[in-house]
Amino acid sequence: MTFETTVQPRYRDLDPMGHVNNAVYATYLEHARTAFFREAVGRDLADANVALASLSIEFRRSIDRLGEVTVELAVVDLGTTSATLSYDLRLDGETAATAESVQVALDDEGAPTPIPADVREAFERHPE
């Protein structure tokens, strides 16, 4: 089961051409990860001791107005110390972008460490 949340674009997200600037898409993904950790994992992302190791976005169409954007998130790979998340950003049911990120669990010194059991269980409940 995937996780889903919504983002409300703001006027300041728009560039001079009238659509959401491409860099803002990463902020929408961060919003989805934050909501996922809070609602599905039961932790604030700021307290989860994870780092974003990689992020890739494939743009499919412009988000060209201030309508609600739906972000669907799923866990596509779960390793010992990292998880790969996929995203589908949609406006009016139409995909505007797809993305993938890798989150790495860190110990107190900042080195990769095994994903805690409760986080792993939450990730396992949201496969693609």
TrEMBL record:
<feature type="region of interest" description="Disordered">
    <location>
        <begin position="107"/>
        <end position="128"/>
    </location>
</feature>
<dbReference type="InterPro" id="IPR050563">
    <property type="entry name" value="4-hydroxybenzoyl-CoA_TE"/>
</dbReference>
<keyword id="KW-0378">Hydrolase</keyword>
<dbReference type="InterPro" id="IPR029069">
    <property type="entry name" value="HotDog_dom_sf"/>
</dbReference>
<dbReference type="GO" id="GO:0047617">
    <property type="term" value="F:fatty acyl-CoA hydrolase activity"/>
</dbReference>
<feature type="compositionally biased region" description="Basic and acidic residues">
    <location>
        <begin position="118"/>
        <end position="128"/>
    </location>
</feature>
<dbReference type="Pfam" id="PF13279">
    <property type="entry name" value="4HBT_2"/>
</dbReference>
<protein>
    <submittedName>
        <fullName>Acyl-CoA thioesterase</fullName>
    </submittedName>
</protein>
<comment type="similarity">
    <text>Belongs to the 4-hydroxybenzoyl-CoA thioesterase family.</text>
</comment>
